[in-house]
Description:
Elements: H1 11-25, H2 31-36, H3 49-64, H4 66-76, H5 88-101, H6 106-119, H7 127-140, H8 153-174, E1 181-185, H9 189-196, E2 199-200, E3 206-208, E4 225-227, H10 234-237, E5 246-249, H11 256-263, E6 267-272, H12 275-288, E7 293-296, E8 307-313, H13 328-331, H14 334-353, E9 355-365, H15 374-383, E10 387-389, E11 410-412, E12 430-437
Parallel strand pairs: 5-6, 5-8, 6-7, 8-9
Antiparallel strand pairs: 1-3, 1-4, 2-3, 9-12, 10-12, 11-12
Helix pairs in contact: 1-3, 1-5, 3-5, 4-5, 5-6, 5-7, 6-7
S-adenosylmethionine (SAM) binds next to helix 11 and strand 6.
Amino acid sequence: MSRALPEPAGLAPRRVAVRIVDGVLSRTRSLDASLEAEHDPSGFRALPERDRALARAIAGVTLRRFGTLRTLIAARLETGLPKKAGPLEAILATAVAQALFMQIPAHTAVDLAVSGARADPDARHFAGLANATLRAIVSAGAPDPTPGVDLPPWLYERWTRAYGSEGAARIAESLGAEAALDLTVKSDPSGWAERLGGIALPTGGVRLASHGLVPALDGFSEGEWWVQDAAAGIPARLFGDLEGKTAIDLCAAPGGKTAQLAAAGAEVVAVDKSAERLSRLSQNLSRLRLSAAPRVGDAASLAIEPADAVLLDAPCSATGTIRRHPDVAWMKRESDVTSLSRLQAQLLDVAVRLVKPGGRLVYCVCSLEPEEGERQIANLLARNPRVRIEPATAAELPGLEEAINPEGCVRTLPFHLPNEDPRLAGLDGFFAARLSVA
Ligand SMILES: C[S@@+](CC[C@H](N)C(=O)[O-])C[C@H]1O[C@@H](n2cnc3c(N)ncnc32)[C@H](O)[C@@H]1O
């Protein structure tokens, strides 16, 4: 009777990292879906804690450096990647990422990748090819970085058109490092910054460079703060004081902005078309001891009383969040920008109708694409004379004055909010417009 050989030490986290990366490259599963899903298709949750950290790190570095990795691999495969090779590209990319960008000994990375290939029913036919390719790549070493190389060409070209070559290069450079952890606090940002060992941001939040598990941090179970990128905290603040006002948050889950509206005193209806995401919103609000009326529904066809304040955080390409979600660059297609822009225009028209005369609408997207931001607002103003921009002021955005565009809308770029310590620099790319509706 033959007995299976024990699996080599260190293979399990690599196999999970390969599955995570393969889910992204095949556009079937986002990074968050692998890391957070209740149902765990990648095997991530079954790993011991230390292996989870390693799998997450390997997948993260691979996706952040994937443009470089794909180029290096393609240069060694004269006839391209073999067809029907299963997760071979992810196996090669994760191995090169470890050897060139993670200080993991090259022989460990290569040997485990070859074992992983041998154990995969589709990739096993190419284990020899993987071995030869990987040895050639790692012995040549890491190439000099070229601006934009780690982004899909369609995306980098768009950013070059929108922000110029220097702007695009600065954005690309700032996406190379992992983002800090940003918190929105109910009150006393400097006190919380001190307690948690972070800094108080000029925009009002708290930033931590390093941290353990979020729920273990001081103040989490007391509901004193919530995780929210510094840029994502801007749109809801543009409403100012909402004491005694009604508000509708149209695409609300998981509720970061709903929490801000509720904390500013509004009576909020939180709408989302996903019941599952909305139940996460309710859990988040209950931890924060804040309240809002959840409502499952499609914002495009909502029968609801108009409100003083309407927030539309529209579904978007999310290209402003690549620092936090490096998979976005490889999951999205350029055609998504076009189809999402159509949906955003439709939702904007609905949102305007839901604002009481004299009330305010804030529109925002976590996208760097002008079609989803600046152009949406220009088109809305051209087709609806009831709507005007109420410009954001420098006093409202201390430290981010450069993010206010000539029309008075807010356009944050990932290299804004600089800091001497690169671990504390930058923020997500966001667009936000404050509109008054006559
Ligand atoms: C960018 S997220 C919103 C983040 C949220 N505003 C926050 O600050 O935590 C977009 C949300 O829009 C929801 N969504 C997408 N299309 C929608 C629609 N047509 N109607 C209502 N919700 C929608 C998605 O389910 C998702 O939860």
